[in-house]
Amino acid sequence: MTITELESATLRDCLARWPSGVAVVTTLDQSGARRGFTATAFSSLSSSPPLVLVCLDRSADCHPAFDGAEAMAVHLLRDDQAQLAARFATKAVDKYGGLASTPGLGRVPLLDGVLGRLECELVNRFDGGDHVILVGLVRRCEVFPGEPLVYCGRVFRSLPPEESPA
């Protein structure tokens, strides 16, 4: 069964109404160059063993790097990091220009100032149509203060402040 162009647009509009967190996923390519992308399709998969999954568009510049990578880092973004999300979502730009990173598991670049960070061994890849589903075994995890960046309605947003109980 195929979806018509009109149905496809309706599907995209419908899915854009679902809010999700925003993450930047990083790795190294075969030459040791830092690569990465912005993901809104990220999820916990299992707590025992600790597995996460993230979906990568096959047309992304960094797709070949993740195809051969042994490790990745998932950075959960804070609500003041929309520019970082936009940078890693843009094709054909120097995503790391002027951006500090430190080497983590497998020398994968780790970004500072994020809400949370998971260092993962890449243990599986599954076909997901125009995406590949990357499955990572979490080897290290860190949590930092802040509020999450959210993507909904095709824009980055902050959650409203919590109301105090009456």
From TrEMBL:
Keywords: Oxidoreductase. Residues 15-158 form the Flavin reductase like domain. InterPro entries: Flavin_Rdtase-like_dom, NADH-dep_flavin_reductase, Split_barrel_FMN-bd. Coiled coil: none annotated. Signal peptide: none annotated. It comes from the Bacteria. This is Flavin reductase family protein. The lineage of its organism: Bacteria, Bacillati, Actinomycetota, Actinomycetes, Kitasatosporales.
